[in-house]
Design brief:
- It is a single chain.
- The chain has twelve helices and no strands.
- It is an all-alpha fold.
- It folds into two domains: about 80 residues, Arc Repressor Mutant, subunit A, CATH 1.10.10; about 160 residues, Tetracycline Repressor, domain 2.
- It starts with 9 loop residues before the first helix and ends with a helix.
- Keywords: DNA-binding, Transcription, Transcription regulation.
């Protein structure tokens, strides 16, 4: 399921995201809830249920009805924007450059990787239309600050920032989908692989000869973490190796005259 950000009223959404003066004021007696409390509850629900959560579930977590939430947040569209941006507040806004840009960029990437693992629903919010919240900006600002220290010009840096950002998100998406597959299909990964690989080898016993290069790639492989399932290990290995190659490329660009 893909959700597109920015579907609510533009002014109301931006006012709430940036906590513009008066954005949370409501007529009547002192409110018993707050926008932050609702957003925090919604994040907790989404961590458990995914992005297809209901306003009713959020209200129940707060001991309120769904209708009570609309006094503070116009609707689910605006709430998703607020959730996305507030979740990103967990991430650092700066990284020390004492050891150079590469260790800092590596730490940024690993922080993002772990963040997506904690909040997989975030990856269901499409990047086609950004949320335009302060914490979303701060996360990219942190990476840009690291890479600006390389001395590369802005024209090159834009592509590098985008490549690293999208790479980490794409790698993390594999793990999120692998973890969700069992619950969605009712079949564990081990059962799925065992059943299909056995049939495939029975029907096509010469698979290794037909695809020798693919067979070569599978040789001498050791799991990064023996406790993780196959696909998660594969994604983690791809993440680490892919990030290394990406940063090698940045180093190459920096070294060019």
């Amino acid at each position: 399921m893909v959700v597109y950000a920015g579907q609510g009223d533009p002014r109301r959404s931006i006012e709430l995201l940036w906590r513009a003066a008066g954005a949370e004021k409501r007529p009547g007696p002192k409110p018993g809830l707050s926008v932050d409390a609702i957003v925090d509850a919604a994040i907790a629900v989404a961590d458990e249920e995914g992005i297809a959560f209901s306003m009713r579930a959020v209200g129940e977590r707060l001991g309120r009805t769904a209708m009570a939430l609309y006094t503070y947040v116009p609707g689910k569209n605006e709430l998703v924007d607020l959730m996305y941006d507030r979740a990103m507040a967990e991430l650092p806004t700066s990284y020390p450059l004492d050891d150079g840009w590469r260790p800092a960029a590596t730490r940024w990437a690993h922080d993002m990787w772990e963040f997506y693992g904690r909040h997989p629903w975030v990856m269901q919010v499409s990047q086609a239309r950004p949320v335009l919240g302060p914490h979303e900006f701060a996360v990219i600002e942190a990476l840009a600050t690291i890479l600006v220290s390389t001395g590369l010009p802005g024209r090159e840096l834009r592509g590098i920032v985008g490549a690293i950002n999208y790479f980490v998100r794409g790698a993390a998406q594999t793990i999120a989908e692998a973890r969700a597959a069992g619950g969605a299909t009712g079949e564990a990964d081990e059962e799925w692989w065992y059943a299909r690989s056995a049939v495939l080898l029975e029907i096509e016993p010469d698979l290794e000869k037909k695809f020798p290069m693919l067979h070569l790639l599978e040789q001498d492989r050791e799991p990064v973490d023996p406790e993780l399932p196959y696909l998660e290990n594969d994604a983690l290995e791809n993440f680490r190796n892919g990030l290394r190659v990406l940063l090698d490329g940045v180093e190459g660009a920096v070294a060019k005259p």
